[in-house]
Amino acid sequence: MNTAILLIGGNLGDREANLAKAVQLIGKIAEVKKVSALYQTAPWGSVDQPDYLNQALLISTSLDALTLLHTLLDIERQIGRIRQEKWGSRVIDIDMIFFNSDVISLPELKIPHPRLHLRNFVLIPLLEIVPDQMHPVFRKTVQELADASIDQLPVTKLG
After folding, report:
1. Which residues does 154 contact at the CB level (< 8 Å), separation at least 6?
2. Which of 64, 74, 95, 147 is an active site residue?
3. Which of 43, 72, 77, 93 has a CA that sits 20 to 30 A from residue 66's CA?
C-alpha cells in the first residue's frame, strides 16, 4: 500500500459541502486515515477572490502516483471543477503533497509539491496530521518547514 498526503480546498459555492464531498469520493478509492480540521485561508497568488477553506488528508491507497493523480482530477471534475486560470477561484482543488517518500518530477506531477514549504495554507493543516513527515528533498520535517516559513497570509482553524 502507498501513503499519500493530500490538500483539498476551495473558495466557491458551499465550501464545506464541497470538501466533504471530496473526502467522501476519495474514501471510495483509498482509505482515509487522518483528516485535519478545516482552515480558512486568504487567497494565494491572485488575491482578488474569496477566502478558501482547506483541509489535509492522509490516505492509504493501492494506486500508483500517476493513477492517483488522474483519479483525483476526475473527482475534481465530478464536484464541478472547471480549470480556467492559474490560482483562480475554484469549487475544489485536490493537490497531492507527498506520495510515500518519493521524489517525482514529471510534466504533470511534481512530488513533493514544489511550493509546499512556501505556503502556510498547506503547512498548517499538515502540522495537524503529519508534523513529523520528512520532506525527501529538503530533509526537514513539516514542523521544521512550518517553523521556517516566511508566509504572512492568515490561516485560521475553524471549529
Report:
1. 41, 42
2. 95
3. 43
Q: DSSP 3-state assignment of 80?
A: coil
Residue 67, helix vs strand vs coil: helix
pLDDT band at 119 (very low <50, low <70, confident <90, very high): very high
One of 48, 51, 81, 151 is an active-site residue; which one? 81
Selecting among 74, 93, 102, 119, the annotated active-site residue is 93
**Catalytic residue list contains 147:** no
C-alpha cell at 45: 497568488
pLDDT value for 81: 66
Whether 81 is catalytic: yes
Count other C-beta atoms under 10 Å from residue 123's C-beta.
Answer: 24
pLDDT in tens, 35-77: 999 999 988 766 678 899 999 999 999 999 999 999 999 999 9
Q: Is 95 noted as a catalytic residue in this protein?
A: yes
pLDDT digit string, tens, across residues 27-44: 999 999 999 999 999 887
Strand stretches in 100-154, DSSP E: 104-106, 109-111
Residue labelled with grid coordinates 478545516:
38
